[in-house]
Design brief:
260 residues, alpha/beta, Rossmann fold, 2 domains, 8 helices, 13% strand
Length: 260
């Protein structure tokens, strides 16, 4: 179905982004990875994807706070593969604090990486997708793109903005063969939320696993973490012909969090 398609996944050297990259590579997509981490580990991941799935994988270390580097990242798809078919915006950071204590530099960084970077990738990718008459834009938002939680002013603002951006792009590309959708995960056991689990465990005087269960009990009725593999399969569905008329949506995958 996707063999030979060209996919760019930001924030894909670990966590959800890497899981989606693996899912796309498993269907035959050639991919460009982007993200932070140890160069040796990133190279092992890149080469491992090529060997495991028989696809071409590249890495671009664009700083997602810098619009010029984001432009180079998207144009790198043209250099490497001749264009772009699938764009997955997954780059994200987190910081928690009450609004009156929230550091302005953390606000600026979260808005830049979690929201503005997606505008810039989409801005450069849509003309390339229009040329080929087909494209899939998948923005990894969050349940926090649909509802709020205390102490997450920047993250919630950015993710709500990302859902709004998703809808605008869907309207502007409707009927062109391009779709634009947001995936809104609930608690998913990744490096991004691990510090929150640790903090919860410390505040309760319990171990890490009990801290995780406490977080789930507060928000996620299923009492289970969303898996990275489940998110990868949802991304694949949104790239399939069955999803040709699904655009402008924000799809929760959250164990019932937003049903409450």
């Amino acid at each position: 179905m996707l063999k030979g398609k060209r996919a760019l996944i930001t924030g894909s050297t670990s966590g959800i982004g890497l899981g989606i990259a693996r899912a796309l590579a498993g269907q035959g997509c050639n991919i460009i990875l982007n993200g932070l981490g140890d160069p040796g580990k990133i190279e092992a991941t890149r080469s491992g994807l090529e060997m495991e799935f028989g696809i071409a994988a590249r890495f671009h270390g664009a700083d997602m706070t810098r619009p010029d580097e984001i432009a180079e990242l998207v144009m790198g798809m043209v250099t490497s593969f001749g264009g772009i078919d699938i764009l997955v915006n997954c780059a994200g950071i987190q910081h928690t604090a009450p609004v009156e204590e929230f550091p302005p530099d953390r606000w600026a960084a979260i808005i830049a990486i979690n929201l503005s970077s997606s505008f810039y990738t989409i801005h450069h990718a849509v003309p390339l997708m229009r040329q080929s008459g087909w494209g899939r834009i998948i923005n990894i938002a969050s349940v926090h793109g649909l509802v709020a939680s205390a102490n997450k002013a920047a993250y919630v603002a950015a993710k709500h903005g990302l859902v709004g951006l998703t809808k605008v792009v869907a309207l502007e590309t409707a009927g062109s063969g391009i779709t634009s959708n947001a995936i809104c995960p609930g608690w998913t056991r990744t490096e991004l939320i691990e510090p929150q689990i640790v903090a919860r465990a410390q505040s309760l005087g319990v171990d890490i696993e009990e801290g995780g269960r406490s977080m789930l009990a507060e928000k996620q009725p299923s009492q289970q973490f969303v898996s990275i593999e489940q998110l990868g399969q949802l991304a694949l569905f949104l790239c399939s012909p069955s999803a040709d008329q699904i655009t402008g949506t924000a799809i929760p995958i959250d164990g019932g969090w937003t049903a409450q």
